[in-house]
Amino acid sequence: MAMTRREAFKNLAKGSLPILAAGCVSTALPEVAHAEEEKVAPKGALGLLYDATKCVGCKSCMVKCSEYNELQPDTRTDGLHQAPPALNYFTKNIIKLYRTADGSDHSYFKQQCMHCIDPGCMNACMFGGLRKDEETGIVWWLGAKCVGCRYCEIACPFHIPAFQWDGFNPKIVKCELCRDHIAKGGKQPGCTEVCPTNAVIYGKREDLLKEAKSRIAANPGKYFQQKVYGEHDAGGTQVLYLSRVDFDKIGLPDVGENSIPSGLKYSHMLYKWLALPIALYAGMVAFAGKNFKEHSHHLVEDQKKTGLRPQL
Amino acid sequence: MTRWDRSVPVYGVPVITRGFWALLALIVVGLALTAVREVVGLGVTSGMSDPFAWGLWKTFNVMVLTGLGSGGFAVGIAAWVFNNKKLHSVMRVALLTSFLAYSTGLAMLGVDVGRPWNFYWVVWPFTWNLHSPLLEIAVCMSLYASIPLFLENLPPLFEYLIYEHPAWRGLAEGCEKVMSKVYPFIIGLAYILPIMHQSSLGALMVLGGNRVNTLWQTPFLPLIYVWAAAFLGYNCVVLCLLLAKLAWKRDLDASVMIELNKLTVWIVYSWTAFRFLDILVRGKILHVFTDGYYSILFWVETVLILGAAYVLSTEKAKKLSVMFQAHALCALGGMIYRFSPTTLAFHAKDGATYFPSAIEFIVSMSFVGIAVLVYLIAVKKLAILPGSNAEWLKMAKYEEQVKPGIQLTGYAPVEH
Questions:
Q1: What CATH number should be reported for the domain holding residue B199?
Q2: Which among B132, B266, B342 is the nearest to A123, CB-wise?
Q3: ipTM
């Protein structure tokens, strides 16, 4: 099919102009996007500080977690021990072991919800089934608003939310810092209450951050990169980590300092006040209206010629 | 040389064939398995797991099939907004395929989610999380399929009533008249809504962060997704037309087919150029060669889509078998592209893998089966597929013999 260059450009424009227009606007907006405020932790943000160098891997925290959250112990591995392979809908908190192939180095590590300052899961959730407490910053699940789409599992960079894969009434299960237990008069979450070495402690995020930094200052060279994981990672988390081994080895991936939802800031610009969609709609209606009139005219003409009923 | 003047039903062939029963059997089995899934949950019935929380149902039935069902807006914009008059003749095929793809996709979404009864919140805007791409899709897709796309598909039904059921003629003609008054407002909606939710399908995986391979993950994923939907829509329309030629010996209008090919080619060229530009600007161009499996996957997509488009731009595409293969391969490439961010190029936790279970396959296919079955009935009962005025007269003669009393020619003009 031969076509001139002129025709070619015309066709290109015809095929993709409206889409291109949307794209151009989205590229032109980064300055505006900067204006969007970066999210900060709420005043009373609660969290955990887990120091992997202090953990002895006793798993008491897992047992207490099951107890306070009224979860059934996951004994599916051998029918006897509570030994879940990963976080799942029986398990909101888990202790795992990292060990090199030759056994020369090892570290225990704890996994539970990180309670992000700007959580990906919450941004993903359609009707607010996952929400962040305004005072404590605890990210919690509200079953009445959850559709069970599992988008939170896609959007969580730490792979925390677990879906109940059995039964007709599935739930999303994740650590909520024992908020129900504390509401009933508990002093602190199960895991921090029983930890024999204080490897995991509970408190306000700002206090925990100070504590973590003082530990780094007191033990130069002890901690990996002299860094508190979670201070800035993924836009900051309320659960903080200290480790001697590489964070990546203990389930804390390098996710950068931008929060997960910030990836969508350009897209949100396009929808601001629905201005762009409405403008595009108006433009298309105007063109379509003009062309429709012309088309209807042709239909009537055709009918006069053929005697056949016009089709819309 | 045939000229497509109007839509003409497929006539002289039975609706109930062996294929009909086969599809029906598939649908019954699929729906039975759906019932099982609702009772026992997703764990036993699907291959999905916590690391791989999305499977075939979302990626294939929603992302891929609504991509293929994008003809309604992709061809529509060219026809109505850019006044490409040749394309009016194929609009009904595009609209019907779109409606079937969207409605079965949405139904599939209801099967895939774990707590579908909570979906009623969609009617209560105060609970909407406006930051969620999935919310945008849920609202926008349901709105699109149930209002503008549904309305756009009504005229063939009105005509059916006018010809076949004289008692309804007055009402149907009245509805037609109202429709022709507000039509531009309906079709405007029918174009803006898909542009919004087809791009949001891409925005979904932006939240996947660095678990989506860098060749696919970009802030421009929404734009690339909606653009891919555009050529997939053209592929689907052309394939339907060619299959109609194969199945029922429907004549083709060469000038319209050439136009469709041209537009497909240019959408694909611009899509590919933008994709490479995006990768280049993000400084990831070397990943195109150095990322092992992901590089190969990238080239499989690119070669299928771009290669097919190149073939379509040559004289060879005048041969129908070549045209068919080119569109089929282009669609395949586009479908693979839509599978990549969620599945093929998705790094799951601890290297977990996903393969759909047999039940997932059967249920997925049965929902496609519903769409195919309805399509086959619709093109035989309604004026969907394009044909010439001569074809219509032949059809009228045949039908008037079979069903005495029916009159398909010589109508008083309708005011527009």
A1: 1.20.1630.10
A2: B132
A3: 0.91
